[in-house]
Amino acid sequence: MQTIGIADDSQQGNLRQFSQFVREHEGGLFNYVFRLVSSREEAEDITQDALLQAYRTWNQVDPNASGGYVKWCYRIARNLAIDALRKKKPRALEDDELDRTTDVRSLKPEDIYEHRVQSTTIRDCIQNLDEKYRDVLVLRYQEELSYEQIAEILEVPVSTIETRIFRAKKMLRQKIGTN
After folding, report:
1. How many CB atoms lie within 10 A of CB 11?
2. Least confident of 30-44, 97-111, 159-173
3. Which of 72, 90, 124, 167 is the most buried (most CB within 10 A)?
4. Domains in the chain and their CATH numbers?
């Protein structure tokens, strides 16, 4: 009987720990997925699926390992997002979604239009980059992760992240310059 009580205490501890993890990281995880899939509804679904998978495998992760639970959950979310992108062609943000990500109240109508055109162009260019370059740009500039954190999530050396970011920015400049 005591074994069951110990197991219950352990499960309750895991649930509390996971709940705290979700409170701290769900928003960032959603933003990361949203930047990858460009669909609010799909990002919500993928984020929930990633968190569910993370909870199911919570005991398999070494919290003291480099990146621990955060790395584990971001990798799950990334893989789910990649699977979703492979199943469908990426779409651009709708105007109302763009309005939510930009403070358009302070802009003149012609500035709003120009901003939308530029945002759409940049977003399309990022979406058309190879996956490895798109990932590093999203993680660095939209999620504001350090090179070390990106390297942990993608499981590549920091020098590879530096190279990919450099090349991705160069590709974007070329694409935007020709559009």
Report:
1. 12
2. 97-111
3. 72
4. 1-88 (1.10.1740.10)
